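ok here's the first one, seq then struct tokens
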Amino acid sequence: MIITILSEIQIPIYPSDIYMQDPQKPIVSVIIPCYNQAGYLSETIQSAFESDHRPLEVIVVNDGSTDSSLQVTLSLLEKYEALEVIDQENAGVASARNAGIRQAKGDFILPLDGDDKIHPQYISKAVSVLISRPAVKVVYCKGKKFDENGFKDWNLKPFSRRALARDNMIFVSALFRKKDWKEAGGFSEDMTMGREDWEFWIKMLKNGGEVVQLPMVGFFYRLTPNSKRKRTGTDQKKRERIAYLNEKHADFFEQELLGPLRFQRTWSRPYNRLMKLLGRL
């Protein structure tokens, strides 16, 4: 177990025992960014360690929480030998994910937000695909949303690059290789208007790579009253997001949508085609 304080001091607590597992299997690093999620965090950590894949490490990145999130994580260090903690000043979820992945020992990465859960077989089944099919860059699964009232289906659209240009259908809790994260430049820390995972998948996949969705419900997304997704769902944030994506990935949108992503996203390609026919684009 390790705790790292990203300020002036780095304090090792205990070395992890993840290498003492089966050396023939790849290490998977579960990265849990956390900001004021003390009420759910222990469930999320337990969910990760209930995975049937070993070797496994779980890195919690406390992103400047003002509640007891850090204390909750520290209290679990004795229970979970392969649990590590990074404590940093608040810098946003993209920064927290990147901090955890940089420290990760695993070749394969699974981001998992601090209030969500995974199925025990999700990681092992995804790793099997990544090992057997080198052309695959991303493996995800089917998901359900849940709250105190129960579960409901999450109808995700099928993946294609053209569909990805209009909207995101891959939740952030997908498995990928650390080397592909590095080649993509990590999560964009200057994207502060939400949907950082969408832009990350665009960066990783726009120049190639296969995507596989497992035929199993392996991810459980917690619905909360004040989630970031709700806070960044306004028209203003949507316009900021579209402007950001168009500036950074004009080549991708030209290839898939014949021009920029529009506010009415599903109409982007026909509108751009019309503008080109009229000589206005």
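and now the second one, same deal
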Amino acid sequence: MNDIRTIERRTVELSHGKTVVWEAGSGDPVVLLHGVRFWEGGDYWISTIQALSAQFHVYAPDLMGWGDGERLFVEYSFAYLVDFVRELQDALGLTSAHIVGHSMGGWVAALLAYESPERVRTLTLVANGGMSTSTPHMMKQVQVPTREELVQYARGIGQMRESEINEAVERWLARVERPDAVAAYTLIMRHMTHPIHRARYNLRRRLRYIKAPTLIVWGEFDLVNSVEFGKEMYQALPAAHMVVLPCGHDCVKEQPDAFHQALIPFLREYAKGDGP
């Protein structure tokens, strides 16, 4: 089971303000980028941080505009988020890192690998959102989830004790009920869901230029981003390996053991053993 107390929660000062980073372990640096849900943050990756931290130095930031850090009240999208990751690497003293991203986080990770290849040792794309120009239903309306909805989501994960569910739900509710949360998130979604921006930052034309060794992980029954997108990415990327798991969109949560069994050997293969 996951004990959040084994993970350090620290704050890092960036140009937009404070960002929260969940951190554990030592060794080659691994940066984990979460998805787009209103209540998400670096703590989405708790089980993965614990699975990796025996061998790697793991960082899971709250992306700018998510989680518990300070907000930026302008419309911004992919370019801002990619630069946020670069700035975070600079602040943490990381010249390069293994980058892992789920859904929207995978889209940001792939753009980083395209724009700044020297910063990406390996790339892991989990149910990546960057192949489709259409907007997933979950992003079309900004609604504050109720406690019951968050409990239902946490129970649906199937990997958490009741005490862990209650703790997580309280943490998520505190985020989404902040006075500034809806306004900031609405600005992000307004830009990110616009068809022009989704087409402008689509990964299709970029994939063949991404040289980092890449692991693609997808759920066979993903109803948010079809596994067919993953297969298309696999064909386009020069150095890719693909794993399909018997689950939906949340591979990290629905199949944590299988996900980690795919991820850890991949990272180990390309580990330099030299830290930052």
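notes on #2: The longest strand covers residues 17-25. The chain has ten helices and eight strands.
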